[in-house]
């Protein structure tokens, strides 16, 4: 399928590893131009050295306004067609494991910057009459996970924001959707496996195997599989899909609307 994005430009946040890196690579392979955003610009240069002509790099943490300013400025200089909101997750833990400092820092890490950046860019897309916004969250927004209290809470809040924003901009040719990944072979999943390893007093491999046993397809997902879906959502083909939270979880969500 021709995704019709070879002449388009996208922003990918958290592009140095995991889902962000995989989505950026998929977009680049489709011929698109990509603004890569991450804390370590040197890592982005190394990983995307073969795509120098198609990429721009913005170095900085997404929790700081200075980084969001740079992203906003990049949109003003050249037409941009979509953005991937993606970043690392907060610490693991049950409700009673958390402190108010954890809640304050996790609000900034998981939710605040996404709202700030979306409110900056949505008017731009609306004025242009076209735009794609994809938020990478977690399957926990549909089925909370016991050891991910902070993630469960703030990611669910992001979904509420995206759904409401999507309704406001829908008639302007702008879409906003959430992807809710389950367990995938990315660096982020290692935090969860390590937590299970410690709490169950078992080896890392055994903790991983137990997680895979609970996935109906019997394995963890691949970042490349996930990025294919994300790239389609960023393309013109997805114009009738907005305000949705789409799982990519190997069948893990048990509810009827998983």
Textual characterization of the structure:
The radius of gyration is 18 Å and the shape is globular. It is 45% helix and 15% strand. The model has no long low-confidence stretch (mean pLDDT 95). The protein has two domains: 9-182 and 222-247, Rossmann fold (3-Layer(aba) Sandwich), CATH 3.40.50.720; 183-220, no CATH class. Helix 1 (18-29) packs across helix 8 and helix 4 runs parallel beside helix 5. It has eight helices and seven strands, in the order E-H-E-H-E-H-E-H-E-H-E-H-H-H-E. With 258 residues, it is α/β, with parallel strands linked by helices. The chain has a seven-stranded parallel beta sheet with strand order 3-2-1-4-5-6-7, sandwiched between helices.
> Which radius of gyration do the C-alpha atoms yield?
18 Å
CATH homologous superfamily of the largest domain, by name? NAD(P)-binding Rossmann-like Domain
Supply the CATH class of the largest domain: Alpha Beta
How are strands sequenced across the largest beta sheet?
3-2-1-4-5-6-7
For the sheet with most strands, the description reads: 7 strands, parallel
List the uncertain runs: none
Question: Can you give the helix content as a percent range?
Answer: 40-55%
